[in-house]
Amino acid sequence: MSNINWGIIGCGDVTEKKSGPAFNKVNNSKLVAVMRRNAAKAEDYARRHGISKWYSDATEIINDPEVDAIYIATPPDSHERYTLEAIQAGKPVYVEKPMTLSAESARLMAAASADSGVKLTVAHYRRGLPLFRKIKELIEEKAIGKVRYVDLKMLQNAGSDLITQTEDNWRLNPAVSGGGLFHDLAPHQLDLMLFFFGEVKEARGRALNQARYSPADDFVSGSLVFENGVVFNGLWCFSVPPEERLDLCTIMGSEGKLSFSVFGNYYILSKDGRDERVEFDLPENIQAPMIQMVVDYFQDKCPNPCTAETGVKVMQLLDTLTS
Fold it and tell me: What pTM did the predictor assign?
């Protein structure tokens, strides 16, 4: 097909700028329909974004003959249900992170895709950004020598502007989100570690609800050992004062180190006593590079940019670090 005609299930805040407009900006792609359970909000979104169709029922948009592929951007508790329904209808799926509520649920989604041959990609979209593709290139070129260990710290206050705020604040409801803010932000970080370093051999973690401002854990620490010997240590705390916020990942090698912010736009290469800071312009619609790769994959032009199997691995890590 010359174009992929998309339908969005769940046209909420995340789709306003991060993803939604990109479906009409990348090559061979068009957004033709949106769905939200609140019909008035679905109609409003369609009107504001110049989209011809809107629905309040997921089954109707999935079975619309003009819709070729489905982007699922609802909260995680409905990802499995809508993914399985779309796959059964023969529609390839691009599903938001976290992939679903648990590794068990993710395996069901991956199996449905594999058994049917209907394509499924997980929206770990930071791996599509030039910044992180460059960091991966530097690691593979051994710009810092052989990687020894990774240290990641994500320290945020509950009202951090990194966290999308909604009326019902579902990200702090484990029954809807799978966990708390860790489940909202850590999938990007853990996926990048898999993107950089490959298979995990060992994983362990600890999770606590220290501040008790919600039912969800607000502190997680974890350690991974990769098959290639790289050791990762991560710390996530979502109850620090605003002035102590930190988003920093350091990759230490035998000849230098790479430092960067997972939700920022730079890396620092430190080697031979010198620091080189390189900044990148982030896309207006942050998911655009990944969505272009998904469109190309759905048209058989390139490999899957983030497979369902990778999504399962990320969910396994989320489960392990918080169990």
Answer: 0.95
